[in-house]
Amino acid sequence: MELSGSEIVVQCLKDEGVEYVFGYPGGAVLHIYDAIFKQDDVKHILVRHEQGATHAADGYARATGRPGVALVTSGPGATNAVTGIATAYMDSIPMVVLTGQVPSPFIGSDAFQEVDTVGITRPCVKHNFLVKDVRDLAETFKKAFYIATSGRPGPVVIDIPKDITDPGVKIPYEYPKKVSMRSYNPVTKGHSGQIKKAVGMILAAKRPVVYSGGGVVLGNASESLTELVRQLGLPITSTLMGLGAYPSSDKQFLGMLGMHGTYEANMAMHGTDVLIAIGARFDDRITGHVERFCPDATIIHIDIDPSSISKNVRVDVPIVGAVDQVLQNMLKVLKESNSKQDKNALEEWWQQIEQWRNKQCLRYDKKSKLIKPQYALEVLHKVTNGDAYVCSDVGQHQMFAAQFYGFDKPRRWINSGGLGTMGFGLPAAMGVKMAHPDAEVVVVTSEASIQMCIQELATCTQHSLPLKIMMLNNGYMGMVRQWQEFFYESRYSHSTVESTPDFVKLAESYGHVGMRIENKDDLESAMREAFAMKDRLVFMDVVIDPDENVYPMIEAGKAHNEMYLSPESELV
Amino acid sequence: MRHIISILMENESGALSRVAGLFSARGYNIESLTVAPTEDPSLSRMTLVTRGNEEIIEQITKQLNKLVEIVKLLDLSEGAHIEREMMLVKIKAEKGNREEMKRLVDIFRGRIIDVTDTSYIVEMTGDGDKLDAFIKAVHEDLVVEVVRTGPSGIARGAKGLSL
C-alpha cells in the first residue's frame, strides 16, 4: 500500500483503533485535515480552542482507559495545547497529541507560526518526537501509542513538519505489528519476595490502613483492590485521584484523605502502624508535613513507577509493578499463607475509627435557607442515582464533589488533580460523552472555572453533546476566597467574580437550555427536569451560599492530626 | 556527596536536552557533563557529575532511568572506578619563565602542544585534583585561558556498561 505522509497519519490512527480525534485545523496540518476529509473511520471533533482539544482527549482517556488523541497546528495551536498536555502529564493520562510544525527546511528560522514544540512540551510529556522523515512516521506512531499506554501512562507528543505530510510523496506503508525499544521496558511484575514480605506485614498489622490512589484506577485494579480490602477487613482511604476505585458507600471506606480529607481518614493515617500505599504518590496535598506523616507506620508502597517510590516519603517495603498484577499476587500469597490476622487488634482499631467517624466531619448546615454546595452535590447524587460521570473543574466545588458525590465505580470521577487546571471540566466532559454517549455526564463547575473554556459550549452544540452542567455560583473564586479569609485576614484581593454574564441567556445563545436556580426548594425538581431532557445540554446556574468553606481542612505544611473541622472549631 | 554517573543513551537529537532539562526542572545540580558517541554510533556515553544526599541521588538515578532515551546507567561512585579529565591551558611563557614552565609541565606529565614566543598551550590529563594542582602551581598572572572537559569515568574490572 502506497500512501502519502498525511494519509499515513490517518491510517496509523485507524490501525491503532482510534475512534475520535479532537482538534483544530491550521496551516501546518492542512494536509492531514485533507486526509481526514477523505475518510469516515476516524471521526474528528472540532473544538473551539486547542486547550479544549487536549482536555477532551484527556477526558476520553480517563473514562475509557484508551488513549485520547488530539490534533493541533503549529505555533499557537501547540502552545494552547500545552495546558492540556501538562494536565494529562500530572495525572498520568495516556494521550497522543499530534502537532503540526513548519516545513523542515524552515525549522529554526522563526517562520510564521513556528515554535519549538518539542522543546516547550519536553518537561510535561512522557516523551515526544519530531518526525524528520516520512518513512519514520508509522514507527513513530507505534512507539508513541506504546509509550503513552504502557508503564505509568502519560501524554506523548508527535511534532510533524508540514513537508512530512506532503500529499505528493507516496511511500509504501505498513503499520508495525510490534514495537521493541531497548531503552524502554517498564516493569510490570512485582518482586515476589517483597510481595510475601508485604503480605506478612499486613497480616501482622494492628492498625493497618490502605491508602489508594489514581494508579488503581489507571491500572484497572479496582476489583483486586476491593477483594483484598474486603477479605482482610482493612480500613481504606483514597486520594482525590483514586475515588471510585473502592466503593465509597462501603463501610470500610473512610473517605478521602489529605488537605480536605475526612477526620477519620486523616486520623487513621496518623495512627496507623502499617500503611499500604497503592498507586499513590505521596503528593504534598496528601502528606501535609512530611516529617510528621504517618509517624508510627511501616510503609508498603506498590507503584509502577520506581521514581515515585521514596520520592517524598521514605518507604520501607517498595514493590515496583503493575498494581493489578501485584494485588493479584498478594491475594495468591494470602491464600497460601498460614499466618493469621490479629483480629482483636483490628477490632479495636475499627472501634477507634468509628469514634473518629462519629464526629461527622462532613456535616453542614442543612437548615440553611440558602443552597449549600454540599446539598447541591447530594441532590445531584440522588437525581443521577450516583451513577453519572462527574467531570469537575477546580476549586471548592471540586472538593465538595469529591466529598459528597460518593463514587462507587472507577473512572466516574474525572478531574484535574495534579495540575489543578480550571477550565478542565467542560471539555473533558465532551470526551467522556463521546466515549459513553448513553451515560449521564455531568460537569460540576463554578462561575469562575467555567469561563476559562466556555467556548466549548459551541462544540457541544455542533456535535450534539447533551451534557448537564451544574454550575455552583457563589460569586467568588471560592477556594482563593477561602484562603484569603483564613490566611490574609479576609482581604479578598481580586477573588470576586464580577461582571458575570447571564448564563441562562449565554447557554441559550449557544443553542442549549439554561436554568437559574436560586431557591433551595426548587433544586431537586429543577435538576430532575434538567436530567429528563435527554437530548439537550442543560446549563444549571445554581446560586449557592457565597460564604461556605470546605472543611475539614489541614493547612499546608501541617500534620494529619491538625485539622479544622468547622468555622467554630478549634484545631483538633 | 559527589557522585559520578555514567549513562548509556540513544544517540538522538534532543536526548541531551532531556537530561539537562530534567536537572534544571527538578532543581538538581550538574557539576559537569560530557557526552560523545560510543563505538556503536547509535549510542552515546555521558558522564555526569552531581552532588546530593543519598535520597537526591536515588531520585536522580530513577528520574534519569525514566527518560525514554536512556538505555542504562551506573553510579560509578558506588564502586572502584577511574576518572580522567582533559585540560588545555594557555600560559604565558616569556624569557624569564619558559624553562620553569617546561619543567612544571614535565613534572605533571603534561605536554606542550603549541608554542609561540610568549606562550605555551599545555595539554594535561588526570583526575580533577591533579589538574587543579597544576593550575595552582602556575602563577595566576601567567594563566591566560583554561579549557577543561569535565571528567569521563569508567568502572574498574572486566565488566562493562553495555547493552
Shape of chain A: globular
Low-confidence segments of chain A: none
**Overall pLDDT of chain B:** 95
Which structural category do the helix and sheet elements of chain B fall into? Answer: alpha+beta
Helix content percent band of chain B:
25-40%
Q: Which radius of gyration of chain B do the C-alpha atoms yield? A: 19 Å
What series of H and E elements makes up the topology of chain B?
Answer: EHEEHEEHEEHEE
- Largest interface, with Cβ-Cβ < 8 Å? A-B, 19 and 20 residues
What proportion strand of chain B?
A: 35-45%
Provide a count of the helices of chain B. Answer: 4
Tell me what you see in this structure.
The complex is a heterodimer of chains A (572) and B (163). In chain A, 35% of the residues lie in helices and 16% in strands. Chain A contains 20 helices and 20 strands. Chain A is globular and about 75 Å long. The mean pLDDT of chain A is 96. Chain B is an alpha+beta fold. In chain B, a hairpin with a 5-residue loop joins strand 2 and strand 3. The longest helix of chain B is centred in the middle third of the chain and has 13 residues, at 54-66. Chain B is built from four helices and nine strands, in the order E-H-E-E-H-E-E-H-E-E-H-E-E. The interface between A and B is medium-sized, with 19 and 20 residues.
